[in-house]
Amino acid sequence: MAEGTGTSTTMESDWLARPGVDTAAGEEFLRAAMEVLLEDAVRKGTDVTQKVCEWQEPAELRALLDLELRERGEPGGRLLRRCRDLVRYSVKTGHPRFFNQLFSGLDHHALAGRLLTEALNTSQYTYEIAPVFVLMEDVVLAKLRELVGWSGGDGIFAPGGSMSNMYAMNVARFHRFPHSRQSGNWALPRLVLFASRESHYSVLKGAAFLGIGTDNVRLVGTDDRGKMIPEELEKEIERAKTEGAQPFFVCATCGTTVLGAFDPLGAIADVCQRHSLWLHVDAAWGGSALLSGKHRHLLAGIERADSVAWNPHKMLTVGLQCSAFLLRDGSGLLQRCHAAGATYLFQTDKFYDVTYDTGDKTPQCGRRVDCLKLWLLWKAAGTQGLARRVERAFACTRYLAEQVKRRDGFQLVLEPEFVNLCFWFVPPSLRGREGSPDYWLKLGKVAPAIKERMMKKGSMMVGYQPHGARVNFFRQIVTNPAVTKADLDFFLDEIERLGRDL
Fold it and tell me: Which CATH class is domain 123-368?
């Protein structure tokens, strides 16, 4: 045993006598990998002559990529081939013909910020470990709050708009019932919150996650454009009170996911003020319209909100993820709601001003640096450049809407208010048959069939969905500033080509 122990000790000593990594080989691999990133992911990934995706079925893709992990490592050359393969078979969201999500495009300055973030690999919870980024986040959040219309306040970057909405619910509950932090939900009355029928599904998820319960989410009626009806909100609040429940929170939406609707914030704020309710605005999608003097009227009244969620990673092409949770209250409410005061991290006797240790404002511990990519983009483009990016997206949507109205076989679901373009494509076999009993059933199968064809061809990507009583229709989104008129014309032409024989 002694001999074995000695051998083991000698081996460990040999290990510790030299670095555990080959720095020179690592840097050589990194240089080659960066070339793969630039050539395959950036250049080819944004080249309109390349495919948006190279579709494979799951079993085929698993075999092609050889995803299994083994006992021994692989040489650098083979790893580089794997890097190229994973880019090859991934969806190119920076491609000018990727219209599938509320995010798309690739901004080179923002990408540089993302790469720097990964290389520096720090966590945004204390000034001592992230001094530059703590200060930077404060500046960026202040600028976003200024655009909302607040001169002060607080905020934090969160891991996505869903979490920003959940933070809002949690802070609102704490603000109304501070003892809930210690006592829990059992010590509270039955809480009820309100959102429109078009609100994001994170409202229901948040209610479940926080123990409020999805049965206590009242979905308020909307008009034919998908906007919350303030009079219906008031009725739902009064109904909840008569049932013995305690209303505490209203979520209005600016930029609904499917139709792109903006709730009437002024009238909703009046209702909230009358009933002393927290008003949160989910502007994750539509918030970037605040940058444009032409379009910020869509969010008129947002300055009256108590909190706002805003995702610059969507319309501004910042890159995932970049979601701001903004708070009008600047008294430290976030800190009081979430702080746990871990003494190994948030020591009070540090040699610097510990108010810069912002990590206790959130339920998270480790937290990505999400501000750098937005800051670097903003530095490069300026507020005016970001405004032009927003206005260009609106212009693309207006152009497409006019083309849809002019072309045979295309039918708008409704006139777009934002950059969500919702439409049906009616193939020749269904034209003129609107009155037939199976018309809508057959039309609902058209969009999925065309979507399958475009993905297997790799020519483009666009989303579709049913909505209420409406059968499947396409929802086209343009946020990529690289998109041209030729891409938009191709988009409509390709749908005609792929669907004419259906």
Answer: alpha beta
